[in-house]
Each structure stands twice: as structure tokens, then as C-alpha cells.
Amino acid sequence: MLSDKILNALNKQIEEEFYSSNLYLAMASWCDKEGLSNCAAFMYDHFEEEKMHMLKFMHYINEVGGHAIVPMIKQPPTDFDSVRSLFKDAFVHEQFITSCISNLAKLSSQENDFQTLNFLQWFITEQIEEETTFQKILDKIKLIGDSPSSLYFIEQEIEKLNAVTLSGNSAE
Ligand SMILES: [Fe+2]
Ligand SMILES: [Fe+2]
């Protein structure tokens, strides 16, 4: 049985994961509009991934006797200055999510809720992966540059990444 404190914190994380999915959907749409189809595909995939994260929290809460609440979420940004600033925003957002997960783990351990702490392990590992992915993209963009003439090469790099990630997902 979840304490009210943990239940509220887990429900808050549903909101964060839901917002993440909408943020990446907004980014996908912007990339699509800019003709960056590989960047768009990458972000559509992340939109799906964050929805899956949200569902993981929902299922866990309901399984252990709580009530998962579908939240109202604020509108994500619609415009981005450049593809580089879009990925930078995504990276900063993932850092924020990592801090949310760390706080949840800290709270679970303070409350002696080891079941929830165990559930959160998957997310702790996932956040390392997420931050690394976005950091690597930013490193590539730094090398390539993001002037209009560089966009083609950024698209090529993201295409390579999609080939690995998207085929990995379909195998799940
Ligand atoms: Fe997530
Ligand atoms: Fe994420």
C-alpha cells in the first residue's frame, strides 16, 4: 500500500512524463514543418516512449492499490530557434526528469517504501540512457554546425540513429 506522500509524488510524475510526451510531439511537429523528416521521426519515437513511461507509472500505482490520475497538462512550446536549440531544450528537459526520478527515489527510501524504490530502478537506468542520447546528438551538432547548409548532415546523423533505435523498438 502506498503512503499518500508517495502516491501524490508518483501521480505528479505521471504529469511530468505526459508533459514530456507532449513536448516531444511539439518538437516532432516543428521538425516536420521545417522539412527535417529524420529529426521528426526521432521525436515522434520519443513521444511514444514517454507515453510508455507515463503508462508504467499508471499501471504501477493501480497495481499497488493506489489510484493513478490522468492530469491536465500545460501546452508545450510550439516554436524553436533552431534544431540545435530544440535538442538542447530536450537535453535540459531530460536532466530535469532525472532530478524528478532522483527525488522520487530519495522519498521512497525515506518512507521505507522499498517496493517503489525497486520500481524506480528501471527509470534511473533509463534516464542515464536518455541523457546520453541527447548529449551525443548535441556533440554531433556542435561538430557539424546548424547553419541551413548543415541541416542535411544533421538529418543524416539522426537517420543513422533512427536506424538503430527504431529497429530496436520494433523488436520489443
Ligand atoms: Fe520519461
Ligand atoms: Fe525521456
List segments where confidence is low: pLDDT < 50 over at least 5 consecutive residues: none
Please name the CATH architecture: Up-down Bundle
* pLDDT averaged residue by residue: 95
- Shape annotation: elongated
CATH fold name: Ferritin
The domain count comes to 1
Give Rg in angstroms.
Answer: 17 Å
Report, as a whole number of angstroms, the end-to-end distance: 31 Å
* Main CATH class: Mainly Alpha
Write a structural description.
It is built from five helices and no strands. The protein has one domain: Ferritin, core subunit, four-helix bundle (Ferritin, Up-down Bundle), CATH 1.20.1260.10. The protein starts with a helix and ends with a helix. The mean pLDDT is 95. The longest helix is centred in the C-terminal third of the chain and has 31 residues. The chain is an all-alpha fold and 172 residues long. The site of one fe (ii) ion has 5 residues, from helix 1 and helix 2.
Provide a short characterization of the protein structure:
It is built from 5 helices and no strands.
Key features of this structure:
Ferritin; single chain; mainly alpha; binds fe (ii) ion; 172 residues
Secondary structure blueprint with pairings:
Layout: H1 4-33, H2 37-63, H3 83-110, H4 114-144, H5 151-170
The structure holds fe (ii) ion (FE2) (2 copies).
